[in-house]
Structures are given as structure tokens and as C-alpha cells.
Design brief:
The complex is a heterodimer of chains A (about 130) and B (about 600). Chain A has a single domain, classed as Glutaredoxin. Chain A is about 45% helix and about 15% strand. In chain A, α3 crosses α4. Chain A is elongated. Chain B folds into 5 domains: about 100 residues, 3-Layer(aba) Sandwich (Glutaredoxin); about 210 residues, NADH-ubiquinone oxidoreductase 51kDa subunit (Rossmann fold, 3-Layer(aba) Sandwich), CATH 3.40.50.11540; about 80 residues, Ubiquitin-like (UB roll) (Roll), CATH 3.10.20.600; about 90 residues, NADH-ubiquinone oxidoreductase 51kDa subunit, iron-sulphur binding domain (de novo design (two linked rop proteins)); about 55 residues, Alpha-Beta Plaits (2-Layer Sandwich), CATH 3.30.70. Helix content of chain B is about 40%, strand content about 15%. The radius of gyration of chain B is 26 Å and the shape is globular. Classes of the chains: A alpha+beta (about 130), B alpha/beta (about 600). At the A-B interface, α1, α3 and β2 of A face α4 and α5 of B.
Chain lengths: ~130, ~600
């Protein structure tokens, strides 16, 4: 790598900041948790996970969203399952979240703040009723 | 393809010596073997500070905090965490005796109450990758200093921040810089003092190991402020890992044009060289350090003139400690007001301490000035090992004094520690319990000073020897009460008359222990008794015949051997030949061996 100018240093900092942001946990209040038990993985949860990471990067949300994996959530009949916790919105567990649905999730839930009605399988009723 | 998991492996000297490098390599190898190398990024970072529980591996984003990890655990960590997305529960940090297994990093009591400025990047970034430093606002302060600020503006910020030298003396950094800046000289020098000599202090080493660029960035800023174009880092050769990381960092900075000629196109030149020291304690003293860099024998010279006016090769030189420097990029980035708001009235910012001794969580901590010793020892440090009774804490290493229970609630600052007869020093904190003997500890520190005294001035050369002889006499039970007065008299003379602070502070540990524990000294002198059992000449091991069942365990453990007796008959220790190692005392299951 050659010597940098001031602008190059600033550009490099921006790119690398995003890379590191993905590693960081602090200050991220939106959580996406992908069920990666055997059932989930068999149904394609790994692809879903990757698609979610890509999609979040596409929307520039790395610094706000934390993507984690967990084990089986018990909804094995609708795998892959993805739980989304967004402050101010009910926490939802979506089912049948194949990699194609990942972009839809990010666009609708995280950007437009609407739920994906045809994928909801758990949690919302109780939360909605409380409000 | 994006990484799903990030594994941060501690690469500090402490964890490396318990095979963290092997853990790091095994994690990478296992990820490859198990076919998930694209899913996980393994990063070797600087010290996490929680050295008691090392080696440490932290996994993000799950925030799993694994302690005491072994290389053979790597396979399971990859299999569970990356493939199955589960934590390896048996390795997670647990509060003692508690079964709750999912403790998040911010809930670990060791990290609560800590506030990290100097150690901001330690355990977060890979110290051998300049890009990760840059990503965490690295070299932002340098940009400001080079393109937006005049030298005087930089100095004004330093003065307004209230930053004081972290090497121990607490001299205001901004004032030191201003003095050097005002001297008219074409050649000036910036020197980083990384000659960390206190037994038990390792914050400078860890800072360099975990975040070398923060020191380099600060040195360039200092160069701009005073008009210097050359810098030296004086570091002891016994810190090989820190030296390696510095070399890597300097090479990376030069390659990117962040050091060398025309930095970032600003027209400002600055170069840094490393100078290795042979590990003499006196070379931490600034004038002796400069002598050593010049190739002379490391001995202090009288001040004034101060180095800021006439230093290295007779040129104006500022010497700043590693920890002081590591604060500077943050102060410039966040502003003097931000920094001045942390800490106490006269001591601003934070201080890093190396907690060691009889404490549950030994390790590297950073707390705001004004935190009390009680909070450090009992909240962060987790109290005394094995539930023993706290006796005192030695701050400032061989230059400081012992601080006892009644003074534990004093908020820490440069002034308050001096008022207690100790000093901040570089931040070593050695905790002692009831099993430590004050005479023995004082003798240890005095022996250290005898060894390390350069011999140039008489008060230190002769004084340390005489004090050591008196302490030795007392520890062997041959002391008289007048020896205590002699110790105090010699100590006071050394403090006043020595050329540098080595001799000027060498008496502190002894004077402080006599002040607080005169009764224990008297016990040694009058009763020939050492209650902690540390002064070997005064300890006698004996077997109580009534309690001895004649199992023979003590005789088998005795290395001399000086324990005799028939099977199933009471044994006897030949006290004349006994070397007082205490093995029989530890071995006996029936309490038949006594110590008095």
C-alpha cells in the first residue's frame, strides 16, 4: 500500500469503520436472531443468515443491527425461523424465512416498519394486545 | 462472504504465556477443518485486562466471554459457536459459586466501574493491523493537529485538559510541552519513556502490545507541538512482544505515509526510532534515560537544566510516559473539556493500575481519578484471595508506601496518595494480606533498590545498603529498638539528599510500614516473632506428639530430610537442620505440625 493522502486516509477510515461496526455490539438496539438448530440449517438458515448480512449492508444498517444466531426456537415446522426485536415494535418470530425472504424482511420490517404478515408465527399477539 | 462470528483472542504477554497464540492458531485451523473458515474471523487483540482468568477468548456478536481457555477447547468452540450457534457453557465466565451461566461482558463486576481511555483499543482491535486502529478514530487527532491546529493551539488544548504525567511524578504535560516549544532550537526531540521498572506494573507494556499506534500518533502530535522531527521510544529489551508490535506499527505507519517525510501531504516530517534498554530501574528516571539513549552509562544528572530545555544531545527534549501519550489522541479528538470533566479537581482523566498480589481478580484496570482504593480492591478486584484479612496495598512499587485499611476510602489522586505517604508511581498496586510480613516486604523493596541504585550519589548508594542491613538484622531477630530510629533517620536523609527519585523515594516502603505497623517491627525485635511466618529465621516448626499419628507424610515431603520417627509413632523435626520451607506444615492432615 502506497503512502496515503488525507482524503485517502479518511476514505479508508470510513470503509474500515463499517467493517469493524459489524463486529461491534455496543449501541446496536435492533436485533435479528436466526434459528440455526439442525432443523434450521437443513431448511437453509445459513443461506438466510448470509442473505440478511448482505441485505443489511446494502441498506447501510450495519451500525444499528446486530445479527446473531441461536439454536432451535421450537418452530421446526416453519424453519428457517428468524426473530426480530426492533425497539418500539413488537418482537416477532418469522417462519419460512428462506434466503429470498431476507430482503423483504429488511425492507419492510427495518425500513418501512411494517410486519411481514404472511411470515408471522409467534409472539406478536401478546405484544400487540398489551399496547 | 460476510463473517458471522468474530473471535477475539487475547494476545497480551500474560495470555500468550498460557498458550493464547496456540489457541489463536488452533481456532483458525479448526475453522478450516470444520469447513467454516468463511464464517468466522479470528483476531488476536491486546490485553483484555482480566489476566486472572486468562487466556481469554471473546466471541462477538454473541458476547460470549470465555475464560481460562485451552488450545484443546478450540475444536469445541468452533463446532458449537460457529456451526451450531450455541455457547460453550463450561468455558463462560461465572461469578464465583453462582450457577448463572450467561453473564454478559458488561455484567462482569471486573469491568463495571472501569472507564477506558488509554486501554480503549486493548482487547478490541488487532494491534498489528493499522486499518483497525484507523477505523476506531485512529489518526483523527493527527489530522487535526497537522491541518487544523497551530502548535500553540495543541499546547493550549493539552494545558486545558489538565493531563498530568502518568509516569508517576504528575507534571502537567501541556506545561512541559510549552517549555520545550519556547526554546529556540532547530533540533528537538520527543522521547517516549517505556522503561517500566516497577515490580508488578505492566500497563505500559500492555498499552504498547494492545494499541501501539496510539503511542506513535501522540508522538507525532507532540513533535508538531514543540517543533521536533525525531522521536525515540526507550523500551526495555525484556518486553519482546511489545517491541515486535511497535516495529510492525512503525513499519505500517511509514508505509502509509503517516510517519516519515511529508506526513499526509502536510509538509511535516517525523520519524520514530526504538532504543532498547537493558532493564535498569534507574533508566526510568528521565535524565538517566537520556544518558542511556546517548550511549552512556545510565546515571541521572542534576536538574535543572530540565530536559525540556537541554535534554538529549543537549537539545530540548520532552519525555512522556506511554500511558500519558496514549491519552493524547483522545484528548485532541474529543476536546479538552471532555477530558477535564473526568476525574478530580487537580487530577484529570483516568489512571491505569496493574492489580497484583493477594487479590481475586488480578489484572489491568482503568478507572477515573477519584475512584477509591476500596472500590478498586473490593469491587473490581473482587477482594482478598481465600477470604483472608486485608493488610495493606502498596502503590507506586518500590517508591511508594503501604496504604492500610483505614485509608481505603480516600479518592485516588496524585496529591491524596502523597498525603498518605505513598505515591501514584506508574500504577502498580500490590495487595497484601495477613500472611505478608511488613518487615519482609520492606526488606524485599530495599534489596531491589540496593540492586538498582546506580551508585552515583552517596545518600542512595550508602543509604539503601545501610537500611537493608538494618532490616535484615530485624528480620533475623537481632534488632534493637534503636534500629527503628536509625531506619527513620537514614530514610529521611536519603529522601532529602538523593540526586534522583530512585534514592528520593527508596525509603518510602520502610518508613510507611514503620508508621503503620510499628507493633509488628517491635514483635520481631522484642519477642523474636514473625506473626506472618515470613521471616524464616524467626520461625520454628515443631510436631505436637499428641496429635501426630505417625503417618510419615511430613517425612516424605521434607526435602532436607530432617524429620524422623518410627511408623505409627510421633515424629520429630530436627530444628537445627530444618530449612523452614513449610512443606511439613502444609502436608500434615492432622494439624500436628505447628509454626511459631
Amino acid at each position: 500500500m502506497a503512502r496515503m493522502t488525507l482524503d485517502e486516509l479518511r476514505a479508508l477510515r470510513e470503509t474500515k469503520r463499517q467493517d469493524l461496526a459489524r463486529r461491534d455490539v455496543e449501541g446496536k438496539d435492533i436485533q435479528i436472531i436466526v434459528g440455526m438448530g439442525t432443523c434450521g440449517i437443513a431448511a437453509g438458515a445459513k443461506l438466510t443468515f448470509d442473505a440478511l448480512v448482505d441485505s443489511i449492508q446494502k441498506h447501510g444498517l450495519e451500525s444499528k443491527v446486530l445479527i446473531r444466531q441461536t439454536g432451535c426456537m421450537g418452530l421446526c415446522y416453519v424453519e428457517p425461523t428468524v426473530e426480530v426485536a426492533y425497539p418500539g415494535m413488537p418482537t416477532v418470530i418469522y417462519g419460512k424465512m428462506t434466503s429470498d425472504a431476507a430482503e423483504e424482511l429488511v425492507q419492510k420490517h427495518l425500513v418501512e416498519h411494517t410486519l411481514l404478515d404472511n411470515h408471522i408465527f409467534d409472539r406478536p399477539a401478546a405484544d400487540i394486545l398489551k399496547k | 462472504m460476510a463473517k458471522k462470528n468474530f473471535m477475539l483472542v487475547c494476545g497480551g504477554t500474560g495470555c500468550e504465556s498460557s498458550k493464547s497464540d496456540e489457541i489463536y492458531r488452533t481456532l483458525i485451523k479448526e475453522a478450516e477443518l470444520q469447513g467454516v473458515k468463511d464464517d468466522v474471523q479470528v483476531v488476536k487483540t491486546g490485553c483484555f485486562g482480566f489476566c486472572e482468568k486468562g487466556p481469554i477468548v471473546k466471541v462477538l456478536p454473541s458476547e460470549s466471554f470465555y475464560v481460562e481457555v485451552k488450545p484443546e477447547d478450540a475444536k469445541e468452540i468452533i463446532a458449537e459457536q460457529v456451526i451450531k450457534g450455541r455457547e460453550v457453557k463450561r468455558l463462560l465466565y461465572k461469578k464465583s459459586q453462582q450457577t448463572a451461566d450467561n453473564i454478559k461482558v458488561q455484567d462482569i463486576e471486573f469491568y463495571q466501574k472501569q472507564f477506558r481511555i488509554v486501554l480503549r483499543n486493548c482487547g478490541v482491535i488487532n494491534p498489528e493491523n493499522i486499518e483497525e486502529y484507523i477505523a476506531r478514530d485512529g489518526y483523527v487527532a493527527l489530522e487535526k493537529a497537522l491541518f487544523e491546529m497551530s502548535p500553540q493551539q495543541i499546547i493550549d488544548v493539552m494545558k486545558a485538559s489538565g493531563l498530568r504525567g502518568r509516569g508517576g511524578a504528575g507534571f502537567p504535560t501541556g506545561v512541559k510541552w510549552e517549555t520545550a516549544a519556547k526554546v529556540n532550537s532547530e533540533v528537538k526531540y520527543v522521547v517516549c519513556n517505556a522503561d517500566e521498572g516497577d515490580p508488578g506494573a505492566y500497563m505500559d507494556r500492555s498499552t504498547i502490545e494492545g494499541d501501539p499506534h496510539s503511542v506513535l500518533e501522540a508522538m507525532i502530535i507532540a513533535g508538531k507541538a514543540i517543533g521536533a522531527h525525531n522521536g525515540y521510544i526507550y523500551i526495555r529489551a525484556e518486553y519482546p512482544l511489545a517491541i515486535d508490535r511497535l516495529k510492525v506499527a512503525i513499519a505500517q505507519a511509514k508505509e502509509r505515509g503517516l510517519m516519515g517525510v511529508d506526513i499526509l501531504g502536510s509538509g511535516f516530517d517525523f520519524d520514530v526510532e526504538i532504543r532498547l534498554g537493558a532493564g535498569a530501574f534507574v533508566c526510568g528516571e528521565e535524565t538517566a534515560l537520556l544518558q542511556s539513549i546517548e550511549g552512556n552509562r545510565g546515571m541521572p544528572i542534576p536538574k535543572p537544566p530540565f530536559p525540556a530545555i537541554k535534554g538529549l544531545w543537549g537539545k530540548p527534549t520532552i519525555i512522556n510516559n506511554v500511558e500519558t501519550l496514549a491519552n493524547i489522541p483522545v484528548i485532541l479528538t474529543k476536546g479538552a473539556e471532555w477530558f477535564a470533566a473526568i476525574g478530580t479537581d487537580k487530577s484529570k482523566g483516568t489512571k491505569v493500575f496493574a492489580l497484583t498480589g493477594k487479590i481475586n481478580n488480578s489484572g489491568l484496570i482503568e478507572v477515573p481519578m477519584g475512584t477509591t482504593l476500596r472500590e478498586i480492591i473490593f469491587d473490581i478486584g473482587g477482594g482478598i484471595k481465600g477470604g483472608k484479612k486485608f493488610k495493606g496495598v502498596q502503590t507506586g512499587g518500590p517508591s511508594g508506601g503501604i496504604i492500610v485499611e483505614k485509608d481505603l476510602d480516600t479518592p485516588i489522586s496524585y496529591e491524596s496518595l502523597i498525603a498518605l505517604g505513598s505515591m501514584m508511581g506508574s500504577g502498580g498496586m500490590i495487595v497484601m494480606d495477613e500472611d505478608d510480613c511488613v518487615v519482609d516486604v520492606s526488606k524485599f523493596y530495599m534489596a531491589f533498590c540496593v540492586d538498582e541504585s546506580c551508585g552515583k550519589c552517596a545518600p542512595c548508594r550508602i543509604g539503601t545498603n545501610q537500611m537493608h542491613a538494618l532490616l535484615d538484622k530485624i528480620s533475623k531477630g537481632n534488632g534493637v529498638e534503636a534500629d527503628l530510629d536509625s531506619l527513620e533517620r537514614i530514610g529521611k536523609a536519603m529522601t532529602k539528599a538523593s540526586l534522583c527519585m530512585l534514592g528520593g523515594s527508596a525509603a518510602n516502603p520502610t518508613l510507611a510500614t514503620i508508621r503503620h505497623f510499628r507493633d509488628e517491627y517491635m514483635e520481631h525485635i522484642v519477642d523474636h516473632k514473625c506473626r506472618a511466618g515470613k521471616c524464616k529465621s524467626l520461625v520454628v516448626y515443631e510436631i505436637i506428639p499428641a496429635k501426630c499419628i505417625g503417618c510419615g507424610l511430613c517425612a516424605r515431603k521434607c526435602p532436607v530430610p530432617c524429620i524422623t520417627g518410627e511408623k505409627k509413632q510421633p515424629h520429630v523435626i530436627d530444628t537445627a537442620r530444618c530449612i523452614k520451607c513449610g512443606e511439613c506444615f502444609k502436608a500434615c492432615k492432622f494439624g500436628a505440625v505447628t509454626k511459631r
